[in-house]
TrEMBL record:
Protein's name in the database: Sugar ABC transporter substrate-binding protein
The keyword RNA-binding is assigned to this record: no
Classification via InterPro entries: Bact_solute-bd_prot1, SBP
Coiled coil: none
Keywords, sorted A to Z: Signal, Transport
Native source species: Bifidobacterium aemilianum
Length: 434
């Protein structure tokens, strides 16, 4: 989009002057020690990473005397409005940002995020976060991930897993599946017993994540390079896309997923699984700490969807320092505390996946299994990320198209056509393809 290109050019010109003073004496940084740093997040207060961030903030305050004020925003608030408030005097000192070209990448190309390169060098963050895991933190001048400039710092990793209610499986005499055929057979057995097998929402992102994980059972790295990195045009007739869309439709027709999913949101499905209403629930590992603490009436286990070649996930949301932050050096000091070994170990113990290469274990058996499963994919660079990363409009457009499938108002071909149109126009507006 040419307008975006002009804004980015102006912003980068301004940054070329301001970044000369970064890391100690910068542009709009206050020369006085602040009383408080403002931190905006949209993370659930029950998540392992949120607990870790709060612990890091306590240690930061103890060391510096500077308080931290956490403000919880919604994902939608930040995803849809971040370019507006980051370009204002109300910008926070630290903000949680979604990853990907359409989120942190777009903001970086518009000059709204600080170049963290000086802090990476000062604190050695590139020694703690591997090259593969830092790909979502680094962007080029067009805002495409895996670039050379750090604009954010990841503090945890995440991926999608299927959580199984083991008690329900035992009650109905069903085995935990290890192949896709077994998964569908399990769904049919539950359906025959009058139980809807898959807990899913279409009011937010649940069906989208399930769809992309099905894509990830058929896709290879070239498909992902084309989708995420614009290496070639996406083949909209390819098996990964047609298989995933047709399979979701079949599961809806067979009753494996309820049509009522159209009116459900993530909290509805989280609560339903915790109460023991469903035998299977695919969700992000950010919910694992919640399940550990809140599931009281049944035992559970979790694995990636059977047959997956790639894991849907990556390092978690980024902690970024807005360009208009007046306290960048102190903000970076807080970020360094978040990536410290002690805080990273806390993430592992509470049910999260630490991003520091120095922390690889948890004393909790379920958490250790999760950490190892993620590592088995990430070390092979076998991650499919999330489907909305290529363009800013896809976070809304893909769920909207899939909701039509759940509603029964569009067939699989029409849904894929809608996603194709949104992808094509979104990538064009991003102005990232040569």
């Amino acid at each position: 989009m040419k307008i975006k290109g002009m804004v980015a050019a102006l912003a980068i010109t301004a940054m070329s002057i301001s970044t000369l003073a970064a890391c100690g004496s910068g542009d709009n940084q206050s020369q006085e020690k602040p009383e408080t740093l403002s931190v905006w997040t949209y993370e659930s207060p029950t998540s392992a990473q949120y607990h870790a961030w709060k612990k890091a903030a306590e240690e930061f305050t103890k060391e510096t005397g500077i308080k931290t004020k956490f403000e919880t925003k919604s994902f939608t608030q930040i995803a849809q409005n971040s370019s507006q408030f980051l370009d204002s005097d109300q910008a926070p000192d630290v903000m949680e940002s979604n990853r990907g070209n359409g989120s942190a990448g777009m903001l970086s190309s518009m000059g709204l995020l600080s170049d963290l390169g000086p802090y990476v060098k000062k604190y050695g963050w590139d020694k703690k976060v591997t090259q593969a895991d830092s790909s979502m933190a680094r962007y080029d001048d067009k805002g495409i991930m895996d670039g050379n400039t750090w604009y954010g710092l990841p503090s945890y990793a995440e991926f999608q897993r299927v959580y199984y209610n083991k008690d329900m499986f035992a009650k109905y005499g069903v085995e935990i599946p290890t192949t896709m055929d077994e998964f569908e057979q399990a769904c049919q057995k539950f359906k025959d017993a009058g139980v809807t097998p898959i807990d899913a929402d279409a009011g937010e992102y649940g069906v989208l994540w399930l769809w992309w994980q099905l894509v990830s059972t058929k896709a290879d790295k070239q498909f992902m390079a084309d989708w995420q990195m614009y290496k070639h045009d996406v083949n909209w007739k390819s098996e990964p896309l047609t298989y995933a869309t047709n399979t979701i439709n079949e599961w809806l027709e067979k009753g494996y997923i309820s049509r009522n999913a159209t009116g459900l949101k993530a909290e509805d499905t989280n609560s339903s699984f915790i109460k023991g209403d469903y035998p299977m629930y695919q969700t992000g590992t950010w919910n694992q700490s919640r399940f550990i603490s809140q599931v009281k009436t049944f035992d559970w286990e979790a694995h990636i969807l059977p047959g997956s070649k790639l894991a849907q996930g990556c390092t978690g949301n980024l902690m970024v320092i807005p360009e208009k932050s007046k306290h960048k050096d102190y903000a970076a000091q807080l970020l360094d505390k978040i990536i410290s070994d002690g805080i990273q170990k806390g993430i592992a113990e509470e049910g999260g996946i630490p991003v520091s290469s120095k922390v690889k274990t948890s004393s909790n058996e379920k958490n250790q299994a999760m950490i190892e499963e993620y590592a088995s994919f990430s070390k092979k660079d076998a991650l499919s990320y999330y489907p909305d990363y290529p363009a800013a409009n896809l976070t809304d457009a893909i769920p909207a198209a899939l909701q039509e499938l759940v509603n029964g108002t569009k067939n699989p071909d029409q849904v894929l056509s809608s996603i194709k149109d949104a992808y094509t126009s979104g990538v064009k507006d991003m102005d990232v393809k040569n």
